[in-house]
Design goal:
With 111 residues, the protein is mainly α. The protein has one domain (10-106). It has helices spanning 10-13, 15-30, 32-38, 44-47, 50-73, 91-106.
Length: 111
Amino acid sequence: MCIRPDTLPNRHKEFSMYVDFVTYYVGAVIGLRHFEKHKCNKLYREYVTISDEAFAILTVENNWGRWMEMARQEEWTTAAVPTKWTVTRDRTASAAKKAQNREAESGNPQA
């Protein structure tokens, strides 16, 4: 899913997909209550900034592969596919490592 300046005119041809993007992703970025409060009363540009929309696009592009893998596996808490640009933490490995550290530290008093 590429959203670039050269593909932006196409979003008007596929308007329903753009409406879904705004509703689910941009709405989450600006806050669902804020979005619901203003979506019918104000112009879009009055309550959503360009930065809000850009951050939503960045978030989707960064996580898309991971989310698709979660959907394929029907496992919604973790996936083997990392995010595109950010560090993905493996929660189960992280929890196991913390537990090992606590066990090791419990025998040795700290000053």
